[in-house]
Specification:
The chain is of the alpha+beta class. It is 34% helix and 20% strand. Strand 18 and strand 19 form a beta hairpin.
């Protein structure tokens, strides 16, 4: 296994696969994102399961996406022979104008020159590899069967000999080869021709999607790749947006900060649609707002910080002790106990997203009355809770505190509610005093004169990168003396070689040892806003160089080695990347 997350992601807004730069499919859950894995080598090198094209000669390997697509191409070349592997998950509109997104991966191998030799290492391990999966060659396919505490199957279609696949025999590549990995038995047996047609249709879908994205003078390629990655993390069926495609990739090697991110966090998702709306992708925006409306049908419904992608409200956390974890970093978790936490910032972030969408796409939402009910509900909750401590943005699992970021976002909730009321022609006067009361409280209690900064929580001398967002959300002006001092103090205390700690004070698991990537993007934006443009640009270019070979970012970066850590690819990191890139394009925020 590589010592970095050198993976490409392919997907179709139903599920996603991670493919190593050596072609090994090391992570795939079917039929949807949060289903049990069929390949999970990324979480256990020995038993997790994978699908590798083993080259039997000394090839130079090069991996890249086909231009303006989420179709991955891995090329093998030496002096005598060459071949390419094309990987994708089908996504396109069918004859009745609905998206066709089957739970399957298509893999095509093409000889380029000479006669390449290779073998197939096909090792499915269904149900998170909890017990043995047996594979059998049938007339039309290879079926892999898991029959233990529960039952599951996986089908592989190919124009290669099924025995050669299962036995790993050497294959002389003289013609194009296809594989279709399908959760369901296919009613029409796939062929090379059908797979090539699926490829062209999927390619056209992504080309059209990219064509709807504006072109920018600076950083256009990284904006587009990040936007496509965010699109892959959306779940078509409900409009949910995932925090990441994986579970339990560690924030630091050998530690226990390993979480399942295949869920929809209100905070992350609202930030995604705030950014993606700037790129004009209305469907993602509308689908997420519909997801929220469906989640909160009753006026007294309390908003959770996160939900399952099919709107599940209970996300019980369990441990998969039979898996060794990424580089033996265990435990491996599925589910996430944080769904029970109280985090007051989510109300402001959601309200901000609703405001942005109503203003930018006023004709898009036929459900304005439902949205207005949600707005009033949020105001009621904030009015009754803003003065109480909570767990904060970083989901601290110990005692609640009066986190500055949470308080600022409570102010944002009321501020945006007032603006929404204005926009809809409704009464707002009763909320103005509440907005001023919250602001006065923050200005008095969050500022620490001895540190000369707004700190992590009331009465604290610890700094926190999330506090930098108080300017972005309009709570304070970028040129306010206190804000400038906060940026400077944050840099002095939390910056290490241009990367930021979230915070340095101990939490439930000790002091963080990796940089939370989104924090560095926030810091770069803050530097730009206070006028340190050249410094901000140099740090941005440096940070972009730490992405993997395909321009993808995970949740964290190791301070010393700069290797990618944490769940991957991470929506938070890519939305913040777009935000900073748009700043450098002088797009109004």
């Amino acid at each position: 296994m590589s010592d970095n997350l050198n993976y490409g992601i392919i997907g179709n807004c139903k599920s996603a696969a991670l493919i190593n730069e050596d072609t090994s499919i090391d992570w795939l859950c079917l039929p949807q994102f949060d289903s049990p894995s069929v390949f999970a080598k990324i979480l256990d090198d020995q038993k997790g399961g994978h699908f590798l094209i083993k080259n039997l000669a000394n090839y130079t390997i090069k991996q890249a996406y086909l231009e303006n697509s989420n179709i991955l191409r891995t090329e093998f070349r030496n002096e005598k022979a060459g071949f390419e592997v094309i990987d994708f998950m089908p996504r396109y509109k069918n004859e009745i104008n609905l998206y066709y997104t089957p739970p399957e991966v298509i893999r095509i191998i093409r000889p380029l020159y000479g006669t390449p030799s290779l073998s197939i290492d096909y090792f499915p391990a269904l149900e998170y590899a909890a017990a043995k999966t047996d594979s059998y060659a049938k007339k039309e396919f290879i079926v892999s069967v898991y029959n233990h505490d529960n039952y599951d199957t996986l089908y592989l279609y190919s124009n290669l000999s099924k025995e050669d696949i299962l036995e790993g025999n050497t294959i002389e590549l003289t013609q194009d080869v296809f594989f279709t990995i399908s959760y369901n038995e296919k009613l029409q047996t796939p062929s090379l021709e059908s797979c090539l047609l699926e490829l062209e249709r999927t390619k056209l879908y992504w080309l059209n999607w990219c064509d709807k994205t504006p072109t920018y003078q600076y950083y256009n390629e990284v904006i587009l790749r990040s936007a496509m990655t965010l699109k892959l993390l959306t779940y078509d069926k409900t409009g949910a947006i995932l925090a990441a495609a994986t579970t339990s990739l560690p924030e630091s090697i050998g530690e226990v900060r390993n979480w399942d991110y295949r869920f929809c966090w209100i905070r992350d998702s609202s930030m995604v649609i705030r950014v993606i709306s700037k790129l004009g992708h209305k469907k993602i925006v509308k689908d997420f707002i519909d997801f929220i409306i469906d989640l909160i049908p009753e006026k007294d419904e309390k908003i959770q910080i996160m939900y399952g992608i099919n709107k599940e409200k209970k996300l019980t956390e369990t441990l998969l002790d039979h898996l060794s974890g990424y580089e033996n970093s265990n435990p491996v978790r599925i589910g996430n106990a944080a769904y029970k936490q109280k985090q007051n910032d989510i109300y402001g972030i959601l309200m901000d997203a609703i405001h942005v969408e109503l203003v930018e796409f006023p004709l898009l939402f036929e459900k304005k009355e439902e949205l207005w009910s949600i707005v009033k509900n949020i105001v009621w909750i904030v009015d009754n809770n803003w003065f109480l401590p909570d767990k904060g943005i970083w989901e601290i699992r110990e005692e609640d505190k009066h986190f500055t970021f949470s308080k600022v976002l409570c102010w944002v909730a009321i501020d945006r509610a007032i603006k929404i009321a204005d926009f809809l022609g409704k009464d707002k006067d009763k909320w103005i005093n509440l907005r001023e009361e919250i602001k006065k409280d923050i200005l008095e209690k969050a500022w620490n004169p001895s540190v000369e900064a707004y700190t992590q929580f009331y009465g604290s001398d610890a700094l926190d990168a999330s506090v930098l967002l108080m300017e972005q959300y309009g709570f304070i002006d970028a040129l306010d003396e206190r804000y400038i001092k906060t940026v400077k103090a944050t840099e002095k205390e939390l910056s290490y070689e241009g990367l930021l700690f979230r915070y340095k004070n101990e939490d439930d698991f000790g002091t963080p040892t990796s940089s939370f990537t989104v924090c560095t993007f926030w810091f770069i934006n803050s530097l730009y806003k206070i006028g340190e443009v050249d410094k901000a640009k140099a740090l941005f270019d440096q940070l972009l160089s730490y992405s993997n070979h395909l321009g993808l970012f995970s949740e964290d970066l190791d301070f010393k080695t700069k290797r990618l850590l944490g769940n991957f690819p991470q929506a938070y990191s890519h939305l913040a990347l777009i935000d900073v890139a748009l700043t450098f394009n002088k797009i109004k925020h």
